[in-house]
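Table S2 (continued). Query chain:
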Amino acid sequence: MKELNEQDKATMEIAKLRSRIGKIILLFVVILAIKQVSPNNFFSWQNDFVSQNIAVVLDEQFVYEPIFFDSLDIKDGLHIPSGMIADTGVAEVVQNCGACHSLDLVKQNKATREGWKEKIVWMQQTQKLWDLGMQEDIILTYLAKNYGPENSGRRKNLENIEWYRL
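Corresponding output:
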């Protein structure tokens, strides 16, 4: 494995710092939005707050940008903390699916896009899964691509084998 030079190390540290700053900014914006609510109507504000403010706070800049994962978290094509395949949409899957259950449950299943959609609808109807909104398409695309059905039937053919005489 190639040793990283000082410039690469500095670039990686800057990426980690940007990721942390992005998370802090998001938290700060959410706290500011919550502070605008008076204690007298704390419970009655939820529907208006969610529809008006969260949509602004969870702007595409925060939700879809891969700022939630440091590049150091990915090795050999896997997101190391979750074990999920590193690809577009992994952040959304980890945040939404991993919020309720182990991601091992996701990794052990295989389904088409329609099959994953059925699982999401079932969870929304019976397990109180929230509306995924704009993230649903990203999640379905990721799951269908990376955890879709495998049409292998039998084991793969052996390749590049050195046979020896008995």
